[in-house]
């Protein structure tokens, strides 16, 4: 079961998938890592693991449609069964989304706190519980069908960094477990409900 992982930053979620994939029982391998920028730790993590990488910068293309097209072609070269957006900070276009199933991990309990500042927004709101979500990606921003979620308590004195680190500690486990189950057991999507288990989408 072939995974292409998309990153934009430190790649700790990617690292969790790379580590999990060293165990054959995980049922999936990371066949390539794509990024929207160079010079990020996520690409170094891939290179260390001997996984091919590619970079497609929006700014290298005349417009987002051409970027979307180019990114879809780069991903297609690796023939993925599933694309995993793990801290990828660009909205994927219709060419990518039309060609592959994509899951995303988000550091909040969607539909609460979508967008690029979920942890900051949850703290600012004063929630006592937040968490992380693995969901299928649709054309919106963090709006696709939920696959798995896990709650994380907010602690006195938390700031954005301490809370995000605690969430990320839970998030990578949830992502590995969810992607592993999708690889081994398959999944079905009915309306907005994703069911893991027999029967493939
Ligand atoms: C993760 O919390 C992800 O949900 C969010 O940004 C963070 C990326 O972390 N979009 P990393 O690059 O996987 O370390």
From TrEMBL:
<dbReference type="GO" id="GO:0004644">
    <property type="term" value="F:phosphoribosylglycinamide formyltransferase activity"/>
</dbReference>
<dbReference type="InterPro" id="IPR036477">
    <property type="entry name" value="Formyl_transf_N_sf"/>
</dbReference>
<comment type="pathway">
    <text>Purine metabolism; IMP biosynthesis via de novo pathway; N(2)-formyl-N(1)-(5-phospho-D-ribosyl)glycinamide from N(1)-(5-phospho-D-ribosyl)glycinamide (10-formyl THF route): step 1/1.</text>
</comment>
<dbReference type="InterPro" id="IPR002376">
    <property type="entry name" value="Formyl_transf_N"/>
</dbReference>
<feature type="active site" description="Proton donor">
    <location>
        <position position="106"/>
    </location>
</feature>
<protein>
    <recommendedName>
        <fullName>Phosphoribosylglycinamide formyltransferase</fullName>
        <ecNumber>2.1.2.2</ecNumber>
    </recommendedName>
</protein>
<comment type="similarity">
    <text>Belongs to the GART family.</text>
</comment>
<feature type="domain" description="Formyl transferase N-terminal">
    <location>
        <begin position="2"/>
        <end position="179"/>
    </location>
</feature>
<keyword id="KW-0658">Purine biosynthesis</keyword>
<feature type="binding site">
    <location>
        <begin position="89"/>
        <end position="92"/>
    </location>
    <ligand>
        <name>(6R)-10-formyltetrahydrofolate</name>
    </ligand>
</feature>
<comment type="function">
    <text>Catalyzes the transfer of a formyl group from 10-formyltetrahydrofolate to 5-phospho-ribosyl-glycinamide (GAR), producing 5-phospho-ribosyl-N-formylglycinamide (FGAR) and tetrahydrofolate.</text>
</comment>
<feature type="site" description="Raises pKa of active site His">
    <location>
        <position position="142"/>
    </location>
</feature>
<feature type="binding site">
    <location>
        <begin position="11"/>
        <end position="13"/>
    </location>
    <ligand>
        <name>N(1)-(5-phospho-beta-D-ribosyl)glycinamide</name>
    </ligand>
</feature>
<feature type="binding site">
    <location>
        <position position="64"/>
    </location>
    <ligand>
        <name>(6R)-10-formyltetrahydrofolate</name>
    </ligand>
</feature>
<feature type="binding site">
    <location>
        <position position="104"/>
    </location>
    <ligand>
        <name>(6R)-10-formyltetrahydrofolate</name>
    </ligand>
</feature>
<dbReference type="InterPro" id="IPR001555">
    <property type="entry name" value="GART_AS"/>
</dbReference>
<dbReference type="InterPro" id="IPR004607">
    <property type="entry name" value="GART"/>
</dbReference>
<dbReference type="Pfam" id="PF00551">
    <property type="entry name" value="Formyl_trans_N"/>
</dbReference>
<keyword id="KW-0808">Transferase</keyword>
């Amino acid at each position: 079961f072939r995974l292409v992982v998309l990153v934009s930053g430190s790649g700790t979620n990617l690292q969790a998938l790379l580590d999990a994939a060293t165990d054959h029982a995980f049922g999936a391998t990371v066949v390539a890592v794509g990024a929207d920028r160079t010079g990020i730790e996520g690409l170094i993590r891939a290179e260390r693991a001997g996984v091919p990488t590619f970079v497609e910068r929006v700014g290298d293309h005349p417009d987002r449609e051409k970027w979307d097209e180019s990114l879809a072609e780069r991903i297609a070269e690796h023939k993925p069964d599933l694309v995993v957006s793990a801290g990828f900070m660009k909205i994927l276009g219709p060419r990518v989304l039309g060609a592959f199933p994509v899951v995303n991990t988000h550091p909040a309990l969607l539909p609460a706190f979508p967008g690029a500042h979920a942890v900051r927004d949850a703290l600012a709101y004063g929630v006592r519980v937040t968490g992380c979500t693995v969901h299928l990606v649709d054309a919106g921003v963090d709006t696709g069908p939920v696959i798995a979620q896990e709650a994380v308590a907010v602690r006195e004195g938390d700031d954005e960094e301490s809370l995000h680190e605690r969430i990320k500690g839970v998030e990578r486990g949830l992502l590995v477990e969810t992607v592993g189950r999708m690889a081994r057991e398959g999944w079905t999507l009915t309306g907005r409900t994703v069911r893991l288990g027999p029967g493939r989408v």
